[in-house]
Design brief:
This is DUF3500 domain-containing protein. The protein is an alpha+beta fold. The protein has one domain. It is 36% helix and 19% strand. Strands 1, 2, 3, 4, 5, 6, 7, 8, 9, 10, 11, 12 and 13 form a 13-stranded mixed beta sheet that branches. Helix 5 runs antiparallel to helix 6. The chain starts with 16 loop residues before the first helix and ends with a helix. The model is unreliable at 1-12 (pLDDT under 50).
Length: 337
C-alpha cells in the first residue's frame, strides 16, 4: 500500500530554507545539551547512559514500571538533573515540559498515597543517548519512566522522528483530599476529544464505533506496528466547525514540542487532513471509561482512559511507517549503498 501519510519532519512536503534552518537549529541545541550531560558524568555513569546508535536498545521502549537502561534522575546531582532538563527543553515546549513535570509529580503522589515509594519512584526516569550527539550527525535519545516515553531520532543533523511519544497520567484527575487535588495532566486531550465526539454524535452516530472501549491502547509498546483499521468518521464527512475542532485536538498533542517541530508536524497534517478518521468507543459522559483514536494511513493517536473506572489515561502518538525513523534510515542506507 502506498504510504500516504507519515509523521516526518523530513517529509514529502518541501521545506523552505527558513524551515530547514529552524530544524537544523533544533538539532544543534539537542546535540549541545546531550553532550553537556555526557561530559558531566563520570566514566562508569557515562557508559550506562550511552549506547551505539544501532543498538537494539534504541527501540526497546515501554511505559510501565520496569527496569530500564540509561542513567536515572536518582543517580544524578542537582546540576546534572538541570542538564537533563535542558535536553528536554531542546525538544519540548513549555506546555510539553509542564505535562512531563506533572506526570512525574503524579508518580510521587502514587508513592505517597499507596505507601510504595520504592515502586512508585519519581526519580526513576532515565535518559539514554544513542550514538554520538552531533549537530550534523545521526544519533538519537530517549527520556523514559513510568507513564512517559519520549523518543527522538536525528539523521544528518535533522530531527527525523519524534515517535513513539507516550504521555499518561494516573490518576487522570486527582480527586483525593490532597494538595494535588484537581490536577489533570492530560485534561485538554480528554475534554477537547469528548466535546468533538459529542458534537459529531448528534448527526453521525458512526463516531461511536463500539459501546465498550478496549482495555488499553491497542498498539501497546510494540517496536513497530501495522496501522489499525479506520474507525469512526472521516474528516471529509465533518463540517467546517468539526474539522477545526479536530485540528485543535491534534495540535494539543503536537504543541507539546517546541515551535519549530510543532509547525513542521502541523504542516504535514494539514496537507493530508482529508485522509484522517476520528473514532470513539465507550461512554461520552465525563468520568466514564472511553477510548478514541485519530489516524490516517500510518499516523496514529490513541487515547485510552479505562483503568481505575475511567481515571487512568494513556495517550500515544505513533507512525507505523517511521517510528524511530526506520523508513528514513532504510532509504538513507540504500542511497549511500
Amino acid at each position: 500500500m502506498k504510504k500516504i501519510f507519515t509523521f516526518l519532519l523530513l517529509s514529502v512536503l518541501p521545506l523552505s530554507a527558513h524551515e530547514h534552518h529552524d530544524l537544523e537549529k533544533v538539532s544543534a541545541e539537542m546535540a549541545k545539551a546531550a553532550n553537556s550531560l555526557l561530559k558531566s558524568l563520570d566514566e562508569e555513569t557515562a557508559k550506562r547512559a550511552q549506547f551505539p546508535f544501532k543498538a537494539d536498545e534504541r527501540q526497546n521502549w515501554n511505559y510501565v514500571p520496569t527496569s530500564r537502561k540509561g542513567v536515572s534522575l536518582e543517580n544524578l546531582s542537582g546540576q546534572q538533573i538541570e542538564l537533563v532538563r535542558q535536553l528536554l527543553q531542546s525538544a519540548l515546549s513549555d506546555p510539553g515540559l509542564k505535562k512531563v513535570d506533572t506526570i512525574i509529580a503524579l508518580e510521587a503522589f502514587l508513592g505517597e498515597t499507596e505507601n510504595r515509594p520504592d515502586f512508585r519512584n519519581s526519580k526513576a526516569y532515565f535518559t539514554t543517548i544513542f550514538g554520538d550527539p552531533s549537530a550534523t550527525g545521526t544519533w538519537g535519545w530517549r527520556f523514559e519512566g513510568h507513564h512517559l516515553s519520549l523518543n527522538y531520532t536525528i539523521i544528518d543533523g535533522k530531527p527525523s522522528s519524534l515517535t513513539p511519544s507516550f504521555f499518561a497520567a494516573n490518576p487522570a484527575e486527582v480527586r483525593a483530599d490532597h494538595k494535588m487535588k484537581g490536577t489533570r495532566a492530560l485534561a485538554a486531550e480528554e475534554d477537547l476529544a469528548r466535546a468533538l465526539a459529542s458534537n459529531i454524535a448528534k448527526t453521525n452516530q458512526a463516531i461511536i464505533f463500539s459501546k465498550k472501549p478496549p482495555r488499553e491502547i491497542l498498539t501497546r509498546s510494540t517496536r513497530q506496528f501495522d496501522q489499525l483499521a479506520p474507525v469512526g468518521v472521516a474528516t471529509k464527512a465533518m463540517n467546517a466547525e468539526q474539522q477545526q475542532a479536530l485540528l485543535t485536538l491534534i495540535e494539543e498533542f503536537s504543541k507539546r514540542h517546541r515551535k519549530e517541530l510543532n509547525e513542521a508536524t502541523m504542516k504535514q497534517i494539514k496537507a493530508e487532513f482529508t485522509m484522517l478518521h476520528f473514532g470513539w468507543a465507550g461512554s461520552l459522559e465525563p468520568e466514564q471509561p472511553f477510548y478514541y483514536r485519530i489516524q490516517s494511513t500510518s499516523f496514529l493517536i490513541e487515547v485510552a482512559n479505562v483503568q481505575n473506572k475511567g481515571n487512568h489515561i494513556h495517550a500515544v502518538w505513533r507512525d507505523s511507517a517511521n517510528d524511530f525513523a526506520i523508513d528514513i534510515l532504510a532509504d538513507h542506507i540504500h542511497s549511500d549503498h
